[in-house]
Write a structure and sequence with these properties.
A hairpin with a 7-residue loop joins strand 30 (572-581) and strand 31. This protein is an alpha/beta fold. The longest helix has 46 residues, at 648-693. It has 13 helices and 34 strands. Among the domains are: 284-406 and 420-425 and 480-521, Leucine-rich repeat, LRR (right-handed beta-alpha superhelix) (Alpha-Beta Horseshoe); 530-643, Immunoglobulins (Immunoglobulin-like); 646-674.
Length: 748
């Protein structure tokens, strides 16, 4: 019976395996891969048309082929699709009924094709669609019926097309949209109600278009959930007042690379939660008082590459959380020493690339910078003198007080500098900007008495300074600048010539001692770039990618331009971080490689998990304190059933192994029963023999007892007579054994 059952079980397994093989061959089209059930991947296979498959396919990948159009019946057999990838093909036309049967589709990727028109109603059946990519095509116009009522759509990409305008109803029914990409188009006009229905929108990118003005206050009025707004790379010359006043949740605003000439006092009003503002690459000439006042929570402010000549001393007073301020590559000549007095959180200040005039007015700024550095901040601030000619090219940190006060012994010179500053703040035609004129009129003009009082104060101040020159020229260490690096720098200023080589040496020494990110001057020799800082080297890490993802390992690769290396004596390494997301238990892990490696294999990963990996450099044993967001890549490990390369022969071997174990188990049970029966039989026979020998149920025979006693004790002489038949007592065997004390003579 057992043999017959085993044979039937083996036949059933063989039939199941055959059926599995037939189903697998039928579900996976030719030239395609099917790593998982209901997944068909045909990327980069040279296909010119969509392959035929069963209706049970859920994921269909056709990227990187030569498909020219999508007809009405091309996807008729894929009624259960949830993800369709048609990117990087040559699609010019999509039939209006191409997606008519795809009621379960959630992700549709049509990017990087040649689509020039989307017919109205094309996406109407896709009521479950959440992601739609139409980027990098040639779409020129969108109507109110293009997207239909896609109320489940969350992400929409239309960047890198040829759109010129957005009508009022184009996004009317996309009430769940959260991410909208419209960058790199030809947008000249956007209807002021185009975004009125997008109340859940969090990300909006309008960069690299052709807008010239932002005046309509209702354009962004309904975007109450917007977090990021990017309008860089347009042709904006003016941003009206109260344009952003309804964006209460906005944390990042980019207006870079436009032609903005001036910011109104109410331009930034309402941005109470803004943390990052970038306005680099514009034509700003000044920063007036009160313009930045609404940005109470801003942490990063980028104003580089403008034409700023004047900054009001109170411009940054309300920015108490400001951490990074970039004013490089402007036209500043001097700045008030009290301009940053209230910015206690400021640790990175960029002032390079300006036309600084190093005179007595810069003395207080120099002292403030020294005191701030002594507290471990402003390590990257470099002020390079442009005027006067005797100090041209020198850094303010290494200009002593005698040089700052040279030729400034009279009050007339200081007053001349004041008049020159006022003149510089005026326009090229000698007229003050409107904001400066209004501010001066509000404060009131100065009388002759005020001028005389001011001149007297200047004389007293200069006399006091001349008395302190001798004391200040000697090396001294203030109570605030107690660190060893500040002391070394002050003494080295007196003993070494102020050359760029010495300055770089001092900066490098500070960076190595404090292990903090520091920008250094790049050295270009024979087409190569030598770097001494990890933050600087991180900028040259490019092409971070992930390959060969399996259930427990993956390969991370990156590259750097040729000729990029560190200065001699500083070892270069790379650190690869990888962390798991989407699970309650998370912890980051690191892998270190030497400077010659550009790839690393991550192992011991968890299957079917989401990971993120980042690459950063380690220069001289020091890391950059700024996280390398631009050098990260995400990936998802596959499940064990999908990526462990378990083929059908492995499945067959596993089934046969299970059968062998089952046979052994059945045989073991049967053999155990036989052994137990034999043991029981032996025990029963042994108990019967003992009872036969010591049974108390047999009658006592007196003749036999008399004979035995007389034969055994015939020689025994005693005065006691022998026992009679009536004196003998019969005991049961069990009671007899239990009453014995000497077990060594009669064992139980």
């Amino acid at each position: 019976m057992a043999k017959r059952a085993l044979s039937h079980f083996a036949l059933w397994n063989a039939g199941a395996l055959s059926l599995l093989l037939l189903c697998a061959r039928a579900a996976c089209p030719e030239f395609c891969d099917c790593p998982r059930a209901q997944h068909v991947l045909c990327a980069n296979r040279g296909l010119h048309a969509l392959p035929e498959s069963s209706r049970s396919v859920r994921v269909l990948g056709l990227a990187g082929n030569f498909i020219g159009n999508v007809s009405a019946r091309a996807l008729a057999r894929y009624g259960h699709l949830t993800r369709l990838d048609l990117q990087f093909n040559q699609i010019r036309r999509v039939h209006s009924k191409a997606f008519e049967n795809l009621f379960e589709l959630e992700e549709l990727y049509l990017g990087h094709n040649r689509i020039s028109k989307l017919h109205p109603g094309t996406f109407r059946p896709l009521q479950k669609l959440r992601v739609l990519y139409g980027n990098d095509n040639d779409i020129r116009m969108l109507s109110g019926e293009t997207f239909g009522k896609l109320e489940s759509l969350v992400r929409l990409r239309l960047d890198k097309n040829a759109l010129e305008l957005l009508s009022e109803s184009v996004f009317k029914h996309l009430s769940s949209l959260m991410f909208l990409h419209l960058e790199s188009n030809q947008l000249r006009h956007i209807h002021h109600k185009a975004f009125s229905s997008l109340t859940k929108l969090q990300f909006l990118n309008l960069s690299d278009n052709k807008q010239t003005q932002l005046r309509e206050t209702s354009l962004f009025s309904q975007l109450r959930s917007l977090v990021t707004l990017l309008i860089s790379g347009n042709r904006l010359t003016h941003v009206g007042s109260h344009v952003f006043q309804h964006l209460k949740k906005l944390t990042k605003l980019s207006l870079s690379n436009n032609n903005i000439l001036k910011l109104e006092n109410d331009t930034l009003k309402g941005l109470v939660h803004l943390q990052e503002l970038t306005m680099d690459g514009n034509k700003l000439t000044e920063i007036q008082a009160g313009v930045l006042e609404p940005l109470a929570r801003v942490e990063q402010l980028d104003l580089r590459d403008n034409r700023i000549t004047r900054i009001d001393p109170t411009a940054f007073t309300r920015l108490t959380r400001l951490r990074v301020l970039d004013l490089s590559n402007n036209r500043l000549r001097r700045i008030s020493s009290n301009a940053f007095s209230t910015n206690a959180a400021l640790f990175q200040l960029e002032l390079s690339g300006n036309q600084w005039k190093c005179d007595c007015r810069m003395e207080k700024l120099k002292e403030w910078m020294a005191d701030t550095r002594a507290r471990g901040k402003l390590l990257t601030t470099l002020v390079r003198c442009h005027h006067p000619p005797t100090l041209e090219g020198k850094y303010l940190d290494h200009v002593n007080d005698t040089e700052l006060l040279a030729d400034r012994t009279g009050s007339e010179n200081c007053r001349a500098d004041d008049e020159e500053e006022v003149k510089d703040s005026r326009g090229a035609e000698g007229q003050e900007p409107p904001g400066v004129t209004e501010e001066r009129l509000k404060r009131g003009g100065q009388t002759e008495e005020d001028m005389e009082t001011r001149e007297g104060r200047h004389k007293n101040l200069m006399i006091k300074r001349k008395k302190e020159v001798k004391l200040r020229t000697a090396p001294r260490v203030s109570a605030k600048s107690s660190s060893s690096s500040a002391l070394v720098r002050r003494l080295a200023t007196k003993m070494l010539p102020l050359t760029e080589e010495n300055i770089s040496m001092w900066e490098l020494n500070d960076a190595l001692q404090n292990r903090v990110p520091h920008k250094h001057v790049q050295h270009y020799t024979a087409g190569s770039v030598e770097m001494t800082d990890a933050c600087q080297f991180n900028r040259y890490i490019v092409n971070v990618s992930v390959h060969n993802v399996t259930f427990d390992s993956t390969t991370v690769s990156w590259s750097t331009p040729e000729g990029t290396h560190t200065v001699p004596g500083l070892a270069l390494m790379f650190r690869v971080l990888f962390d798991r997301f989407g699970h309650s238990v998370r912890f980051p892990r690191y892998v270190y490689t030497d400077g010659s490696a550009r790839a690393v294999t991550l192992q011991e990963l968890r299957p079917d998990s989401t990971y993120i990996t980042c690459v950063e450099s380690v220069v001289g044993g020091a890391l950059c304190q700024v996280a390398p967001r631009d050098h990260c890549e995400g990936f998802i490990t596959t499940s064990l059933s999908a990526t462990s390369d378990i083929k059908l022969q492995h499945v067959t071997a596993a089934v046969l192994g299970a059968n062998v174990l089952l046979i052994l188990l059945v045989g073991g049970v049967w053999l155990g029963r036989i052994v137990r029966r034999r043991i029981k039989t032996r025990k029963s026979s042994a108990h019967t023999h003992v009872r036969h020998m010591y049974s108390s149920r047999r009658p006592f025979r007196s003749a036999m007892a008399t004979t035995c006693v007389s034969s055994e004790f015939s020689g025994y002489q005693s005065g006691r007579p022998l026992a009679e038949e009536g004196d003998l007592i019969q005991f049961p065997v069990e009671r007899f054994f239990e009453g014995r004390d000497d077990d060594s003579i009669i064992p139980r």
